[in-house]
Design goal:
Elements (H helix, E strand, L loop, with lengths): L4 H20 L5 E2 L3 E2 L5 H4 L7 H19 L4 H20 L18 H24 L5 H25 L3
Antiparallel strand pairs: 1-2
Helix pairs in contact: 3-4, 4-5, 5-6
Length: 170
């Protein structure tokens, strides 16, 4: 299936919105020095399901690189976002119920059950955050604080993305 011009414009605007929100506002939002919010991953999560893996990985790399530029993190976000994008088709297939429906191209909260969407975002955020924080820690000496940071950040990011999708409905 190909995207209509309206879907392309909508996806592009959401992409710019999530990146700008991350860079300008959410960057400074940290709870208790453990929970970090990375809403920019929604750029990849909301892409149509029929996006080719190559385009998905390139988009994830560019998105991560943009965030890395503003965070001065030398490719950590790019690596974590590409890993998340690589697993996205598998997670989408297992978490999003397609039975009795035509193939769905977009992943939108209003088109899915809340539980399906929540699990989809939660699992992919977990993959992204685990990669990001383990790369940042670069050793297992800080395992417990890293695991706490991953758990708190996954929850914070997932809830933030869920709330944002309520406000970015069609």
């Amino acid at each position: 299936m190909t995207m209509t011009l309206r879907e392309i414009v909508r996806t592009t605007l959401l992409f710019v919105f999530y990146l700008a929100l991350q860079i300008l506002l959410v960057r400074n939002l940290v709870l208790f020095d453990y929970a970090f919010c990375f809403v920019y991953i929604a750029c990849i999560l909301m892409l149509p399901l029929d996006t080719s893996l190559t385009l998905l990985l390139v988009t994830a790399f560019v998105t991560g690189l943009i965030v890395d530029t503003f965070y001065n993190t030398l490719g950590m976000h790019a690596a974590a976002t590409v890993l998340m994008a690589y697993f996205r088709p598998i997670i989408a297939r297992t978490q999003i119920d397609q039975s009795g429906q035509e193939f769905r191209t977009e992943v939108l909260l209003q088109d899915l059950e809340t539980g399906q969407f929540f699990r989809y975002v939660l699992i992919l955020a977990l993959i992204h955050h685990a990669a990001l924080f383990f790369i940042e820690a670069s050793s297992l000496t800080l395992l417990i604080p890293t695991l706490i940071r991953i758990g708190a950040s996954v929850l914070f990011t997932t809830v933030s993305i869920m709330l944002l999708t309520f406000f970015t409905k069609r």
